[in-house]
Amino acid sequence: MKSRGVKVAVMTAAIVAMCPTISANAAPGPTPAPATMLGSIDDGPGSFSVYRTVDSGQRPTDADNAACNDYFGSPRSLTVVERLDARMYTFTNDPSTGFLQNPTAQNVGPIYVCDGPIVDGQALLDQWGALTAPGLGELSMYGPCGLEFMIGSPGRAAVDCVLRVNPNDSGVTDGVATSNSIANPLRLPDGRTGSLWTLYTLGDGIAPVPEPVAGTPQPTGSVKYSVGREVNSVSTGSTPSCPGGVRTTEIHAVSVDAATGAASTEPSADVAATASICYQNPSSPDFGASLSITSYGVTPALTATSTGQCRRTDLPIEPGTVQQSCGFTLPPQPALGLTGGQVTLNGLVPTNDAAGSANSAIWTTSFLGSITPR
C-alpha cells in the first residue's frame, strides 16, 4: 500500500550506505534466502497465479452489483464510487525482460470489483471483488486499496489493493490478492482501466480448467506491464534510516500457464531488474517503505525511486511467517518517455524481518508513456 499524494523519495548515496561494506578481514555478508535461489524457488505452502485484466466496457450484472451492495451494507452501498466489469486473461511475456508481449492471449474468466471510500491506515478505498479462475473456481475477496493520481498522466490513477480471499467450495482455503492497476475511470483515450492481479492462494483448487478461449486485443493503451520473481534476495539488516531492514534483490522474468495463470517456479536466468527496499518498522495496518528499482528491459536502463506502503496479512501458514504486500507509484521521467507507473510485490516474509524472503515474491511493474521495452 503506497502513501498518498505525490511522494517521491530521492534516494542518493544513503541507499548505498544502507548496505554494510565488507573488508578483507570482515565477516561474510548476508547470503541470499534459499527460497529465492534459482533451482530452488518455491511458492511456499500456497500457489501464485497472475492475470491481466481489462475493463470489458460492459455494465456489471445485477447479481454482481447486489453482492457488492451486500458487502457494503446500508447505507454504505450508496457511497460506492466504482463498479467495474472486466475480463481476466493469461498472457505471453518476454522470457528475458518479463514485459508482456500479448497481454490478452487467452480469455480465462470474469472479474468484478466495486469500491467505496474508507480510511484505513494510508488506504482510501475499500474494495470488494469476485472472479472465476480456472482451477480455483469462484472467489470473492475484500480489503483496502491505495490510490494516487498520476501527475504525468492526467485522468489516471495508480491503484494497489491488498484483498483477503475468502474460502470457497473448490478447495481454496485462504489467500491474498494484490493488484497493480492503472485506473481510467472517465475512459479517456489511451486505454481502459486495467490491472495485473497476483493471487496467492492456499489449498488445492479442484475447479475445472476449461480449454482456454483465444483472447482478442483490448484497448490497453500505452501501459507496459512486466512480471518477475525475486532471485537472490538478501536481507541486509536494520539501519537507523531503515529500522525494518533493507532488502536487495534481482528480479527475473517469469511466465504463467496459458490455461490457469499459474506462475512458473522456473524464472529466466537473465536479470530483468534489480531493486532495493528500505523498510520502516512494521505496524498495523500498514508501514512505509522506499524503493529504488532499475529495469534492464528498456534501453537505456531505467532507474526509478519512490516511497510507498506495505501491508501484512496473517495466513494459516508456517509459524513465524506472514504474507506481505507493497506498492509504489513511479514518478514521470519525461526524457525517457515515462509518464508514470507502479510497482507491486506479493510474497511471504519472516514475521520478525520485513526485508526477508520466505518464498520468491511476485513483482509486477507498470510503465506508462512512450517508453518501449527492448
Automatic annotation (TrEMBL):
Keywords: Signal
Domain of life: Bacteria
UniProt keyword Signal present: yes
Cleavable signal peptide: 1-26
Keyword Signal: yes
Protein name: Secreted protein
